[in-house]
Amino acid sequence: MVLSKLANDTKNTVVSVVKGADDVLTALRGAVKNQVTGSLKDVTDLATASMDAVGEIVTGAVEASGEVGQSVTAVTKGAVNSALTAVSDVGGNVMKAAANAASGAVKGAADVSGDVGAVAVSAVEGAIEAAGNIGVGTAEVVREAALGAVKAADEVGTEAGQAVRGALLAAASLPKDIIDAALKGSEDK
Questions:
Q1: Contact call for residues 37 and 87 (beta carbons, < 8 A)
Q2: Burial per residue of 82-121, b for 16 or more beta-carbon CB atoms within 10 angstroms, e otherwise
Q3: Do 75 and 118 contact (CB within 8 A), yes or no?
Q4: pLDDT of 10-44, one tens digit each?
Q5: What value does the mean pLDDT of the chain take?
Q6: Domain regions of the chain by residue span
Q7: Which end of the chain, N or C, is surrounded by fewer C-beta atoms within 10 Å?
Q8: CA separation for the pair 187, 126 (Å, rounded)
Q9: What pLDDT is recorded for position 19?
């Protein structure tokens, strides 16, 4: 209950912060980063509860994409990048956050009838960007983000799961070998 409220609060925060901003995506990234940082500072157990909050915050940001006049993929990439940067800043588990952020993005896209496959690709791209900026292993971040996206898509439904797998494998911007290995592992679970 508290987590779903967090997604709604984030959506409202993003919409209010972004309205009237000259650079909407920069304002959005700042709002997401502030939401994640605030949530993580409020939670003492950085290992579990707060990483769930990361997913909900990204869900809220993605759901706000239509209201702020931005594409869901652009919002996703910025939100995931900002969320992982915030987690790194407060010393949280970036790998768990990558999975939760990508999962939140796919759930948010499904909630607004967005293209879950394109959003999954954008979420992994955002995770790659963040990994480069914060100095964590790109391969592991890609793996965790891809698995988070696939898990969320499977929870949405079979079609969504297939769409996400297909989009991740077809994306020229993603490291095919890492995605392929991650997806093969996800089928075994």
A1: no
A2: bbbbbbbeeebbbbbbbbbbbbbbbbbbbeeebbbbbbbb
A3: no
A4: 676 766 766 666 676 777 677 777 777 666 665 55
A5: 84
A6: 2-187
A7: N
A8: 24
A9: 66
